[in-house]
Structures are given as structure tokens and as C-alpha cells.
Design goal:
With 321 residues, this protein is an alpha/beta fold. It has 13 helices and 12 strands. The protein is 42% helix and 17% strand. A 7-stranded parallel β-sheet has the order 3-2-1-4-5-6-10, sandwiched between helices. A 3-stranded mixed β-sheet has the order 7-9-11. A two-stranded parallel ribbon has the order 8-12.
Length: 321
């Protein structure tokens, strides 16, 4: 990888991957639709010389191709609003792949675990059946199939799959990211799902390190990779750590099916979460053995350290706004 392009660079995963690329001294093009957000990203990274900002529409292949320069690896971190996933995810992916096809770039697509459907392994490997039973899971499976389509003959593609994530750059696309942001701000928070059931979360800076390492190895393309977190943790323990780090003790309300359905009457996107609640009831836990075998070791910041660092970073960001 000589030069990278991050599409969706100001989002949760995009910002973390951009930061890791810059940390490793890799020439990087940060692509997004908001010039203001891109400039803020650059400022937060210290305006590094090896970072180029490019404003454009990720649904327009010509915008991406025109901004890509001589980039050889494209990180697809762009996303669509949760409630628009079934209608807009595939057109977005097709536009990005069309740009990569035109320029002959490799593609690293960041995705989630929805295509696996219900858990069929104690530790989910990349060989787990792709048998989604939800509307969004089926859309994500179609997205996977599109990425590996023979239509893109000039593109070598890799999919990296993350569980729910958290970290300083996490946004509303992350269940836990929204919870921690509210706690850091000293506001009442919502926690999606049962707070007693331990679940897996990955710290975004850790995920970014592992993703970039995989992207630097040619033979890691043309396949999928599960990026694990640092084990499992209950919502109650997360809140305990976050409250201690923030010095705040505002209420944290757990929302299950009934609560999300009721809230969905006023906040439509919340209705869309209901069908995915199975992941909070019988969580999938990812195996990291394949990643470990190829990059040497897993990067796994303990939850106590990662959550506290996230709270501090969110509070520092709030003072700068």
C-alpha cells in the first residue's frame, strides 16, 4: 500500500482508519461530502502533510475516481442512515466499486456482522454460514455478494467485519457510541438491549490498527476477516466504568423491544433497531484466530482503558466546540 483513500473519512470507522494511516506515515486522501468536517478531522490530526482532503459525493463514481489520484487502496467506510439501508446501501457500494474498477484500486470494505444471522458457533469464524433472517441482514448479504461480483474484474476486494464498536470517533451508527457520548456529556443515556447480557465490542483505534495491517498484505484480499474486540462485557459494567471516568451519574435507560417500538413512534429510526435485537439477546462473538495468524497478534485494549479514554476524548472534544 503506497497511498490510501478513505471514503467516508469523517465517520466513525473512517476517522479511526484515517488516523491510523497517518500515524503510520502513509499518504492518505480523506474523502467526504462535508468540507467543514474534513477540515475538522485534519485539525484534530494536527494537519499532517501527508493528508489530502477531497470533498465529493460517494454516490458519484466520477467524484471518487477524480479525487483518488494515484491511490492504490480504497477504504470503503461510507455508510447510509440506518433507516435507509435497504434502499441506498447497494447503490452506494456500486458507485464506490465502479470508481475502484476505473482506477484499478484495491478495496477494503468495512462491514458488520448482520449477514451471519443467528449464531451457529460459539466463536464465529469467517466460515460461519451467511444465513441472515432479517431485512437488514439480507441487505448486507446482497452487499457482500455485490462486492465480490465478477463485474469488478479490476478490483481486489477485502471485507472486514466488526461487532458493535466504540471509541472517540464513534457516532450514531454505533449503539454503544451514542450511549457513551451522552454519559460523557452528563446527560441521561439510552442503552440498546439487555444490560445484563455480556456482549462483544471493539475499540475503534484497535480495529483500525488491525484493518490497516491486513490491507498492507496482498494475499489478505479476496476474502473476509472478522475483527474481534477485547472479549465481552455487560452494559452494567460499561456504565459503571463510563460514570467513573466522566464523574457523572445521570440515568441510563435500557431499551428492549417494547421501549424501542414505543420510541419509534416519535423517532422512526428506532423502529429499525427492533429486528436486530436478537444480537443483544444471543450475541455473536467473533473469533480472531485468522487475523492473529496473518498479522501476528490481536490489538485488544482492555475495556476499562478504552472506555475511560473514550469518555475523556469526548469531553475534550466538547470543550473545543
Amino acid at each position: 500500500m503506497k497511498r490510501a483513500m478513505v471514503v467516508g473519512a469523517t465517520g466513525g470507522t473512517g476517522a479511526a482508519i484515517t488516523e491510523e494511516l497517518i500515524r503510520q506515515g502513509i499518504e492518505t486522501i480523506a474523502f467526504g461530502r462535508s468540507g467543514q468536517k474534513l477540515e475538522l478531522l485534519a485539525k484534530n490530526l494536527g494537519n499532517p502533510a501527508q493528508l489530502t482532503l477531497a470533498v465529493g459525493d460517494a454516490f458519484r463514481p466520477e467524484d471518487i475516481a477524480g479525487a483518488s489520484g494515484d491511490a492504490d487502496v480504497l477504504f470503503h467506510c461510507a455508510n447510509v442512515p440506518y433507516h435507509e439501508m435497504t434502499t441506498r446501501l447497494l447503490p452506494l457500494g456500486e458507485a464506490i466499486m465502479a470508481a475502484a474498477q476505473k482506477k484499478g484500486m484495491k478495496v477494503v470494505a468495512v462491514d458488520g456482522i448482520y449477514p451471519y444471522g443467528k449464531r451457529q458457533m460459539d466463536l464465529v469464524t469467517e466460515e460461519h454460514p451467511l444465513e441472515p433472517h432479517t431485512k437488514k441482514g439480507k441487505t448486507r448479504l446482497a452487499f457482500t455478494q455485490m462486492l465480490f461480483s465478477k463485474l469488478w474484474s479490476e478490483v481486489d476486494t477485502m471485507i472486514v467485519r466488526l461487532p458493535d464498536y466504540y471509541g472517540p470517533s464513534a457516532n450514531e451508527a454505533s449503539y454503544l457510541g451514542s450511549t457513551l457520548e451522552a454519559i460523557a456529556a452528563g446527560k441521561p443515556a439510552i442503552f440498546i438491549g439487555n444490560m445484563h447480557v455480556p456482549r462483544e465490542y471493539v475499540y475503534l483505534p484497535d480495529a483500525a490498527k488491525m484493518i490497516v495491517e491486513l490491507a498492507k498484505v496482498d494475499h489478505c484480499f479476496s476474502q473476509s476477516w472478522n475483527i474481534p474486540g477485547a472479549g465481552t462485557i455487560s452494559g452494567n459494567r460499561i456504565v459503571e466504568i463510563a460514570r467513573k471516568a466522566s464523574g457523572q451519574r445521570k440515568p441510563v435507560i435500557s431499551l428492549g423491544r417494547a421501549g424501542l417500538t414505543l420510541l419509534g413512534l416519535f423517532v422512526p429510526v428506532m423502529k429499525e433497531v427492533v429486528e436486530m435485537l436478537y444480537l443483544t439477546e444471543e450475541p455473536l462473538i467473533l473469533s480472531g484466530e485468522k487475523v492473529k495468524a496473518h498479522i501476528g497478534s490481536l490489538v485488544q485494549t482492555p475495556f476499562e482503558e478504552g472506555i475511560a479514554a473514550t469518555i475523556r476524548a469526548l469531553q475534550e472534544k466538547a470543550t473545543r466546540i
